[in-house]
Design goal:
The chain has about 180 residues and is an alpha/beta fold. The protein has a single domain, classed as 3-Layer(aba) Sandwich (Glutaredoxin). The protein has 5 helices and 7 strands, in the order αβββαβαβαββα. Helix 2 packs parallel to helix 5. The radius of gyration is 19 Å and the shape is globular. About 15% of the residues have low confidence.
Length: about 180
Amino acid sequence: MKRINVGILAVTVLFTVFGFVLKNSPDGQAIGLEVGDKAPEIVMNDKDGKTLKLSQLKGYVVLIDFWASWCRPCRMENPTVVAAYEKFKDKKLSGSKGFKVFNVSLDTNKDAWIKAIGDDRLDWPEHVSDLKGWGNEAAKIYGVNSIPNNFLIDAKGIIIGKRLRGPALEAELAKLEK
C-alpha cells in the first residue's frame, strides 16, 4: 500500500479551498458572468406558453430580473423596478431603442406567478419561467443562487451591471442617458 505524502495532501486541500473561495463571492453569489461578458441567451415560455428569447430585445438596454412571487425581498424590490421601467422605457439610452425588463421567475406555481405580476403592476410583456423553482435553467446559466438578482445589459447584449437594487438601478440607467 502506498503512503500518502502529507505535504502533497495539504497543498491539494489548500488549492481546493482556495479555488472555492475564488469561485464564490462573499454574498454567496456564484462568480462567472462579469461586467463586460456577453449575456447568455435565455429561451423560455411566457405566462401564455409562448416562447420568448432574450435576443429578441437586442437593440434595447435590458434588465434581466430574477425573482419569484414567494420571495418577499423580490416583491419589496418590484416597485423600484416598476419606477425605473416607467422612467426609462422610452428613453434612448446609449444609442439604444429604449429600456426593457426581462423578468425570469423562479416560481413553481403558475397561478401565484401570474397573480404577482398583476398585483405588483409589472406591466411589461417580457415575463418568463420554466416553473422549476431553483432548478430554473436561466438561473443556472447565470449563476443565480439568491434572489432578487439582476443583470443590466446594453443594446449589444453585453453585461454592464449586476445586482443593481434600490437606487443603484436608477443611478446606473441615468448614466446611460446622454
